[in-house]
Amino acid sequence: HYFKQFNLSMATSKGEVPEEYPANRTKPKIVIFDLDFTVWPYWADCHLNPPFRIHKGVVVDSRNEKVEIYDDIPRILSFCRHHSIPTAIASKSPETENYMQLLGLLDLKKEFVQFEIYCNNKKKHMTKIREGQGVEFKDMIFFDDEWGNIKSTGELGVTAIHCPHRRGVTWEIFYDALMTHSQRRKSSK
User: Fold this and answer.
1) Which of 74, 55, 71 is nearest to 63 (CA)?
2) Burial tier of 180 (Cβ tally within 10 Å: 0-12, 13-18, 19+)
3) pLDDT, tens only, 79-115
4) What's the pTM?
5) Catalytic member of 36, 72, 139, 145
6) On the chain, which terminus has fewer CB atoms closer than 10 Å, C or N?
7) Dihedral over alpha carbons 109, 43, 167, 22 (to 10 degrees)
8) Out of 34, 61, 139, 144, which one is annotated catalytic?
């Protein structure tokens, strides 16, 4: 099994990460994201109050608190789309409807091919994604801020990447994960 904590010293030069997919690198067949402290900077089911709406062009909760995502998420999702790498959500929250509403209002819903949002061990989420997308665990990359989720999904063979708490998936973490996954796939052949 494989799991990894990101270390900035392992990234290519900050800010100089290429947009094109590197030659001779194996692409993952799917990239999976947790939501809380991975895509957005809070536990949405604890720190935000539904219902959510758009107010003056921004998504807000019932207290008019602005709902945001981490800065690099649009670039990461755009990269995946450009390189035909499907993306999915695996979130351990009981607030499925509220999370789906947030993803829709943030105009992110269209970016993902599958949503697994419910309370359970992330192994179940990965299994559902494997079944739904016809992708083997070894062909998945998964990002999460919780070590327990990284360890359990890594045991399945998923390239599970830990995101530092309260920093989310940065471009550097994402790009390093692509290289790690490719190297791992190359060495398993």
Assistant:
1) 55
2) middle
3) 999 899 999 999 999 999 999 999 999 999 999 999 9
4) 0.88
5) 36
6) C
7) -30
8) 34
